[in-house]
Fold:
Amino acid sequence: MDHFLYRDGALFAEDVAIADIAAAVGTPFYVYSTATLLRHFHLFDEALGGMDHLVCYAMKANSNQAVLRTLAQAGAGMDVVSGGEYLRAKAAGVPGDKIVFSGVGKTAAEIRLALEGGIRQFNVESEPEMIVLDATARAMGVTAPISIRVNPDVDAKTHAKIATGKSENKFGIPIARAREVYAMAAAMEGLQIIGIDVHIGSQLTDLEPYRLAYQKVAELTEILRADGHTITRLDLGGGLGIPYARSNEAPPLPTDYGKIVRETLGHLDCEIEIEPGRLIAGNAGLMVSEVIYVKEGEGREFLILDGAMNDLIRPAMYDAHHDIIPVVEPAPGTEQSPIDIVGPVCESGDTFAKQRLMPPLSAGDLVAFRSAGAYGAVMASEYNSRPMIPEVLVHGDQFAVIRARPTFDEMINRDTIPSWL
Ligand code: LLP
Structure:
């Protein structure tokens, strides 16, 4: 459920008309709903109720400072994957002991940054990384709290580019080698073993892969404890999917996910940590765009928008579906016809949807891409020298620009000319 609904024929974000935001900031833009962000965070928090737990929002999904602060104030921790994300989380007011550092290639500089600023734990992904972490911590005279990310070799049944839990993926340490690597870690003076970490992929629409992975984590916990390690925390990753096509998708609910966590891991007396990104931010955001032209092609029509693949790359990159709805609600019974919805970038890949059924639209009309709050703005670029589009946050009947659109001069002047030119 989200807070983007039609009222008297006009699309609203909470109590603000989308058309009013468009008039104030121009198109295209991203708009996020505070109430939806908070609703999704609380759904997870409640789904794990009764267990000692922390929801660490995977901020790669949407790392705008205002979004982070909204969630941090509700009690969320953060899952970060770079020094930049770590500093963003700190800047949004998240204390170090609520920040988890994930990612396959943490550099010594990033590790130092986190050890200086405070960290809940590092999720270690390889032996070479463990060696650097140990050396960095010892050089600083501190101990680094760690979980080791194990790769459970489970098929997450999601898009190949966002599956991470198969042995062929670059992530984690094969679960079969976990005992050996934990023994190595235990012998390193700069490290303190806290727990186990696992993350099998993103946009999972089936809970069974979670059950399989978490059963393996439960077995491993017992084995490692028998080996003498102290395992008090289990980081279960993120990845729960959202409905992108409202008409025919019904992904599992956080409550059902919580049930699986309780069933597979509840008996271990561990603190549970989860890292949802998409499920918190995805359906809390729209990308709003204006129709520039309707073009008659050879046997098909094209709806040419002012938003493009550089603003929202998911359709081009993952063949992802986003529902696209008109900002003015069509009258009941309006006939729909198939049309290709494209952006102005000079690539055929700049296609948002092919032969999508849409009501009649013309130049100047606004459309909204649903489910664009996660992996939208954060993956945008200025390809074709199109300035990054602004982000807006709605809170009840208020809205604020939370990242402004740069001017053309700002965009151009980011480049510098060497002395010989
Ligand atoms: N934890 C780790 C270690 C991750 O790598 C990820 C996502 C998450 C948590 C959060 O997963 P989520 O709950 O958001 O599914 N750009 C792609 C998604 C990439 C996901 C990468 N890792 C997309 O637009 O679909």
